[in-house]
Write a structure and sequence with these properties.
- By secondary structure, this protein is α+β, with helices and mostly antiparallel strands.
- The protein has one domain: Pnp Oxidase, Chain A (Roll).
- It has 4 helices and 7 strands; from the N terminus they run αββββαββααβ.
């Protein structure tokens, strides 16, 4: 978790800041449960029509998941896309490994992101974001 937080996430955030997002990645924006400020977290692109799927590597221990539990209204942005708003909900009965397998069919970049993220799983948890209509 420390490598992800201290090395990988800052590099991915920098790429987004420079408008050079890494293919297969996306940004999730939650509202901080204590601060009330926007919090952006790099995630794998889980776009699937009017839904956006995520697998939290550390389940309910992930800060962004705790933020979602406090306020499920979120925004997501995929490379070359715009921000989309939606409502997130935790799906503890969903199979995270199967969800990753399904999402990986969308292309090599997403498959690499999902595979890399899965290497540091401790207690994976599926999260679905129902996107607001355009």
């Amino acid at each position: 978790m420390a490598i992800q937080r201290r090395v990988v996430n800052p590099v991915v955030r920098l790429a987004w800041t420079l408008r050079l997002p890494i293919p297969g990645d996306a940004l999730l924006e939650t509202t901080g449960r204590r601060s009330g400020k926007p919090r952006r977290t790099p995630v794998c692109d889980g776009s699937d029509g009017e839904a956006f799927w995520l697998v939290s590597q550390h389940g309910r221990d992930a800060d962004w998941v705790r933020n979602v539990e406090a306020d499920p209204r979120v925004r997501v942005k995929v490379s070359r896309g715009r921000w989309r708003t939606g409502v997130a909900r935790l799906l503890p009965d969903d199979d995270p490994a199967e969800r990753r397998r399904i999402l990986a069919h969308a292309g090599l970049a997403r498959r690499l992101c999902l595979a890399t993220a899965g290497l540091s799983d401790t207690s994976p948890l599926t999260v679905r974001i129902d996107l607001d209509p355009d």
